[in-house]
Amino acid sequence: MLIFIILIAVAAYTDMITKRWTINEVQAVMDLSGGNTLKKHVNLNELYQEKIGDGRFTSDKNKEQIKSELEAAVDEDYLRKIEDAYKEELFNQIKVNDTISSVQVTNLDVDFGYTNEGLGEKATPRPQFVIDSVVQLEVKTSNQFDTGANYTSQVFSSFNSSNFEVTVIDKPKDGKQTLAVRSVTRLVYR
């Protein structure tokens, strides 16, 4: 009987450690993927040249003209290319393995704007790109500790001041635990 209790305690501890390790590793990969994507695929000078074709930011235009032209240049197609590049980068890093049985991006929002968000109230608004993503993972676990908890969480996006819902639906006793991991990556031009 004592051996059985010890085995259950070891299994529970192993499941907890595996879940915690997986969440930390996946969040780190998401953060790195977001940073890599923004560094590789965002170049405001090239974008400005491509869309407006009127030189670099150091033209004779005033800041408001450049700001409005740049905001128009960062259209849905440009943001969608960044989304696709992020997903590709993410799935190159996170693979199905002995611990993770599936990976799914459930929320991905790439946004652009001129704001002083995160820079201080008195700071001059700067061009910023943000990747806000939620990934759901199915992690292999012991059937005894797979409770199948379903939940919905309200998540706040400070960049566009809106809420969105993250819903996790987990089947009990199937040997897989569904985990939701969120990452927000931002690129600020100074």
Task: Output the keywords.
single chain; 190 residues; alpha+beta; three-stranded antiparallel sheet; 4 helices; 5 strands; 31% strand; elongated; plasmid
SSE blueprint and pairings:
Blueprint: H1 2-41, H2 44-51, H3 63-73, H4 76-93, E1 100-115, E2 126-140, E3 151-157, E4 162-168, E5 176-188
Helix pairs in contact: 1-4
Keywords: Plasmid
What does this structure look like?
The chain has 190 residues and is an alpha+beta fold. A hairpin with a 4-residue loop joins strand 3 and strand 4 (162-168). Helices cover 41% and strands 31% of the residues. Helix 1 runs antiparallel to helix 4. The protein has a 3-stranded antiparallel beta sheet with strand order 1-2-5. A two-stranded antiparallel ribbon has the order 3-4. Keywords: Plasmid.
- Counted up, domains total 1
Physical arrangement of strands within the biggest beta sheet: 1-2-5
Distance between the termini: 65 Å
- Derived from helix and strand composition plus strand pairing, the structural class reads alpha+beta
Radius of gyration, whole Å: 21 Å
Work out the oligomeric state of the chains in this entry.
single chain
Low-confidence stretches: none
Most strands sheet? 3 strands, antiparallel
Element pattern in H and E: HHHHEEEEE
Helix content bin = 40-55%
- Taken as a percent bin, the fraction of beta residues is 25-35%
Average predicted local confidence, pLDDT: 82
Number of helices: 4
Assign an overall shape: elongated
Counting DSSP E segments of at least 2 residues, the number of strands comes to 5
Keywords: Plasmid
